[in-house]
Amino acid sequence: ARPALLSLPRPCHRHEGSPAEMTVLVPAWSPNSSLLLLLLLLSPCLRGTPDCYFSHNPISSNFNLRIKKLTDYLLKDYPVTVAINLQDEKYCKALWSLFLAQRWMEQLKTVAGAEMQGLLEAVNTEIHFVRSCAFQPLPECLRFVQTNISHLLQDTCSQLLILKPCMGKACQNFSRCLEVQCQPDSSTLLPPRSPVALEGTELPEPPSSQLLLLLLLLPLTLVLLAAAWGLRWQRARRRTALRPGVPLTSHP
């Protein structure tokens, strides 16, 4: 395509040359330009960090004071829910717990008064960094139990204490944590035990046929024992009856 000519004035500069010298070349629009613009819009730099990466530490140094201030103001028995079967992976579990707690902070702000909203927002600011992670939808295997708000805030403080020393250092990239995982169900998966422990604690169960045979032989055994005891008693009584008496002798 032939480039179009566009005359652009140069501000704050006086040019004494001919008008032809003041022209610049502007390329005509092409489909390649649309493709380039689309690639720029989809680039990671423009659309954020979907891989949950923290180049700096987003946790402040006085987060515990903000949590304590909210705890002292709230009703201790306000009901909330917490997940009890998150996979026990040190840093991922902390991040997942904060993600669930941050959802509660947003929900409580919608029903709180003006002063309470300020305290909730102060705590929410400390854990809002989890929203920069593109978490996948929560799995159906998560189990929630009801507890009070003070326990939730105490757990939030504990998880921040776990993450703060390594944020922006040892644990910058949390890409492996984007999928919330549950612990294996204890009802379907038994804890592993060593073969030695199995040999020392488990006894083989008798088959059903052997058990039935034992039940049939037990009454017969009792009858035989009773018959043997009765026969022995009769023999002893017969010996006593046939025993000769002591003969009487007369002296001259």
Describe the overall structure.
It is a single chain. This protein has 252 residues and is mainly alpha-helical. The protein has 8 helices and 4 strands. It has helices at 31-41, 44-47, 63-73, 90-109, 114-127, 149-163, 195-201, 208-242; strands at 4-7, 23-26, 79-83, 144-148. The chain has a two-stranded antiparallel sheet. A two-stranded antiparallel ribbon has the order 3-4. Helix 3 runs antiparallel to helix 5 (114-127). The N and C termini lie far apart (170 Å). Residues 4-16, 18-27, 36-49, 188-207 and 246-252 have low confidence and may be disordered.
Please give the order of strands in the largest beta sheet. Answer: 1-2
Overall helicity: 40-55%
Strand/helix succession: EEHHHEHHEHHH
Q: What is the number of E strands?
A: 4
Descriptive key words:
cytokine; Flt3_lig; 252 residues; mainly alpha; two-stranded antiparallel ribbon; single chain; two-stranded antiparallel sheet; disordered C terminus; 8 helices; receptor tyrosine kinase binding; Fms-related tyrosine kinase 3 ligand
Explain briefly what this protein structure is.
The N and C termini lie far apart (170 Å). The chain has 252 residues and is mostly helical. The chain is elongated.
Summarize the SSE layout with pairings.
Elements: E1 4-7, E2 23-26, H1 31-41, H2 44-47, H3 63-73, E3 79-83, H4 90-109, H5 114-127, E4 144-148, H6 149-163, H7 195-201, H8 208-242
Antiparallel strand pairs: 1-2, 3-4
Helix pairs in contact: 3-5, 3-6, 4-5, 4-6
